[in-house]
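Blinded run. Sample ID left blank on purpose so nobody reads anything into the name before looking at the predicted structure. Input follows.
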Amino acid sequence: MKKKLLGERWVKGCKERGEWVELCFMAKAAGMGMLVSKPLGDSCRYDVLVEAGGRILRVQVKSTIYRRRGNEYSGNVMGPGRKAYKEGSVDFFAVYLIPADAWYIIPYEALGRKLTLHFVPGGRCQKYAKYREAWHLLRGSNEAVKIFACADEDWTTIWENSTVLV
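Blinded prediction complete.
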């Protein structure tokens, strides 16, 4: 069954969609200045390594297109054999709600015993709202990235007096 997103076709199969979402995650993280690596093969419990802020983090990338009711989405965060990921095997889950174009960067510890997560983007009461687009958790910083642009001819003086966050 082919699903549509804004008049375009989604990736057809679950495995292919998972691979596509992993690429989307890596492109977004790399675009924010993080180094990303993909392990060879499918035997690791994580999908991507992210290096930023002096740390290397194991990230399991998940996605969903399943809308339950209204604007509520749900997705599973199960590992092999439809079991929970063991502590120490994954540091973060990056969950992409494809129809909402929203990423949730969730620490392993925040899941507890949950295997199915529910999201209501823009909703008033949602458990994972603070993790929406929380890329700073992977960077190891609570501060937003600052981007400087200047049309001044004396740009080197401005640059030298600026604080640059990576």
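Unblinding after everyone has recorded impressions. The longest strand covers residues 55-64.
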